[in-house]
Structure prediction request, 141 residues.
Amino acid sequence: MRLENCFERRLLRKIKPSLEKAKRSLAVAKKKLEEARVAFDSGLLSSCIIMAYTAMFHAARALLYKDGIQEKSHVCTVEYLRKKYSQELPTYLINALDAHRIERHEVLYGIEFVPTKEDCETIIEDAEDFIGKVEKILRLK
Prediction:
């Protein structure tokens, strides 16, 4: 979906920019990442995928809150990052967010995807990197 369509369909909409909400969303991201690690250590691989993706998503939302954008779509959140943060966030991390969005969807609603330890190690590593980059962006601006 194109970014313009996201705004037209009100899947993204303008709100008052809030660094406070951005900071709270980043704090939630870090908490969810810790929950993902606990799930992984406990052998709860599906829960690990869900929590690690949620961590990445909350970090992404932090950038949107900073910019004064409310999301109602995970896909549109990814598109917003592609258009507005392609200079600050490496493409591989934006692509990882999108790929992990699909994995999370499959874990929740699919019947064929069974996450592996390697899947969990990858998503945890990506979430750590993503959160770190978002944290740097929030400090720079």
